[in-house]
Amino acid sequence: PQEGYVEDSLEKGMNYEQKKWEEEHLSAAVMKFGAKDAKQARKEKDYDYVMDEEIEFVQAVTMPGSNKSAETESQLSASDLKKMSIEETRKSLPIYKFKDDIIAAVRDHQVLIIEGETGSGKTTQIPQYLHEAGFTNDKMKIGCTQPRRVAAMSVSARVAEEMGYKLGNEVGYSIRFEDCTSERTILKYMTDGMLLREFLGEPDLASYSVMIIDEAHERTLHTDVLFGLVKDIARFRPDLKLLISSATLDAQKFSEFFDDAPIFRIPGRRFPVDIYYTKAPEADYLDAAVVSVLQIHVTQPKGDILVFLTGQEEIETANEMLLERTKKLGSKIKELMVCPIYSNLPSDLQSRIFDPTPPGARKVVLATNIAETSLTIDGIVYVLDPGFCKQKSYNARTGMESLIVTPISKASANQRAGRAGRVSAGKCFRLFTAWAYKNELEDNTVPEIQRTNLGNVVLLLKSLGINDLIHFDFMDPPPHETLVLALEQLYALGALNHKGELTKLGRRMAEFPVDPMLSKMILASEKYKCSDEILSITAMLSVNNAVFYRPKDKVVHADTARTNFFRPGGDHLTLLNVYTQWAETNYSTQWCYENYIQHRSMTRARDIRDQLEGMMERVEIEITTNAGDTVAIRKAVTAGFFYHTAKLSKGGQYKTVKHQQTVMVHPNSSLFEELPRWLVYHELVLTTKEYMRQVIEIESSWLLEVAPHYYKSKELDDSSHKKMPKQTGKAKADMHKHS
Ligand code: CDP
Ligand code: MG
C-alpha cells in the first residue's frame, strides 16, 4: 500500500475496539493529510527544515455541500468578497433572495421560526429588511438578542456600517455595563441577559414592534428564560412580532414550543468540507494546534485558518507560540497574520478579525466558541478543531459551579467544520481521532439551564412577579433540585421570605446586573459604611482575573510587582489596593505599565464601577468611604458570600463549611503562604484541584452576625470538632487571635 494508507496508522497497542472500528469505517481511500501537497512543498521550500514536528491526519469523510448549485457556483475568494461594495455583498448573501418572502411571512404570522445556515445573513439582514418594510415606523424598535457580547457589538457595528449610520445612533447595542444606544435607536442588538433586564422596566416590551431571539440553538440560560417570557407576552400583545432564529436543526422543537409556529427555512450555500482526524489522540492539543497551523500554512493552498480554542488564556498562549515560531522561521514561510478573538478582547482589536488578509499572507483566527455560530469571518477555508470548549458545570447538591474544559458535542464539531465551507470547498482538521468522534462525543450540548446556578434568573423572575417557577413554561425545565437550591440561597441571602416571596432587600438586589451574592454584598456595604470600597472591589472582581499582567519573559518582576500589592486580610483587599493606587495616579496608563497591571482591565473596572455607582442612587445608598476599617469591608463581603465559607483542615486543605468539600487556596492568592483558619472565597475553579480564587480571611463569629438564619453557632464552634486538624504555628497563632 502507498504511503499514508490506513494500515500503517494502526499502530501497535491501539485499543482493539478502536482498531476494529477504524477498519470498518475508514476506507482504503483514506489519504494521509496533505501527502501530495507536502511533497510538493518539500521540493520547493525545504519543508523538513520548516516543520521539525508533524501531526499526522487521516481523512475520513467529506461533509457534502448543502445543494448542488452551490458546488457549481463560482467560488468566491476572500479577496473577491472584499472588493465587492457593501450593497453587492448584501445581495450576495443567501438570505437576499428571500427578502420579500420573509417580510410577508412576518406580516402574516405573529411568531415565526427562522432556520438558516450560519453566515446566510439572518442576524445582519433581517432587522434591516423589517426596517425597510416599515416595522420601525412610529418610533418603534426592532430588537435582536445575542448570547454573546462580542457578537452584539460586532454585528451592530457591521449593520450600522451597512446602513451608513454611526454606531450608537439609529443602530446600537446594549450589553452589561455598556449601553451604546440613544433616543434615535431603532435597531437594537443586545445580549439575551440585557433583554431579560429590560423586562424589569418594560414588562410588555411596549417600545418594540419586533423582537428577534437570535442564535436560539445556543440555548443559553438567558435565551431559554426569554422563550418563556416572550411566548407569554405574545399572547397579550398581538401587534408584537416574534422571530426565533436558529442555525441548526432545532427548528422543529422551537416550533412546537411556540404553539406550532411556522418555520421559514433559508437554504444555505455551503461547499463540501473534507474532514480529517488525527491518527492518534493528541496529548497536548494546544501544542498540536500550533504545529498544525504551521503545517497547513506551509502545505495548503491559499485560504484563511480558523482555530477553536477554549478561552482567553489558551488563545494568548497560542498567539505567543505562533509569533515566536514564525519569527524564528522568518522569510522561510509566507506571512501569517494572527488574530485572536474572545469576549474580553477590547473592541478595537476585535474588529481586526474582519480586516482583509494582505496579498500573499494568510490569516489565522484564534477564536473561542464565539466563531462557531455567532460570528462569521469571510475567507475561512481551513478549520482546526481540538474538540474542546469551556463549559459551566454545576453541582446541584453542593451548589458549586465550576468552569471546566469539556469535549464538545458532535453537533458542535459539525457546526465548526461547516465554517470551512462558506466561500469555497474547505478542510476541517480535527485534533482527535475518528473513533473518538464516533464513540466519545455526545450528540448534543446540554442546555445551560440544566447545568448552572439559577440564583440570578430566579431573582429576576420573582422581580417580574412570576412566583410559581415550578410551572414556568420552560422549553427544557431545569432540574428540580437546582431550582430549590436557588430558592434556598435567595432565602439565605434575605432576598426571599419564607413563603418564597420577594423581600424589599430582594427587590433592591435585583436592581444590580450582577450575581445575587455580589448584589447582597453591595447592599450590605450600607450598614458597614464602606460602599465606596465595596464598589471598587465588585468592579475589580468583575474583570475576570485579568488584572495582573505576567509576560513570560518577565515572570519574576511581574510576580514581585503583584506581591507588593498584597494587603493583610486577603485578595479582595489587594484588588482594592490596586484600584485605589491607580485612581490616585489619576488612572495613569504608565503606572499600570510599570506595575504589571493590565490597563485595559482597569479601565473596564472603572467603567463598571461608574455604572454601579449610578445604580446606587436607585437603591438610595450613599457612597461612604471607610478605607481604614478592613473588618467592616470584609464583613460586607461576608454578608454576600457567607455561602462560600471554608475552614482550614488537614495538610493545608480546606473544607467548605456546609458540604465538607475539600478545596484549596489558589497559589496566586495573597493568603497562600499563611493560611487562615476561616475564609470566604469568591469562586471555585477546577484545574488539577478544586481551587478557591480570591479569598479573604474572616472570623467565624461574623457568620452569625451576617447570616444568623443560615449558620447555627454549633456549626461554627471550633471546639466541637472531635478531631482537631494538625496545626501549623501560624494557624495556631491565628486561632488565638480569633478566640
Ligand atoms: O446570522 P447569520 O449567521 O445568518 O449571518 P450574519 O451574521 O448576518 O452574517 C452575514 C454576513 O455579514 C457574513 O458574510 C459576515 O461575514 C458579514 N459580517 C461582517 O462582515 N462583519 C460583521 N461584524 C458581522 C458580519
Ligand atoms: Mg447570526
From TrEMBL:
It catalyses: ATP + H2O = ADP + phosphate + H(+). Residues 715-739 are annotated as: Disordered. Keywords: ATP-binding, Helicase, Hydrolase, mRNA processing, mRNA splicing, Nucleotide-binding. The chain holds residues 293 to 1031 of 1031 of the full protein. This is RNA helicase. Its EC number is 3.6.4.13. One of its GO terms (biological process) is mRNA processing. GO terms for cellular component: catalytic step 2 spliceosome. It comes from Owenia fusiformis (Polychaete worm). It is an enzyme of class 3 (hydrolase). One of its GO terms (molecular function) is RNA binding.
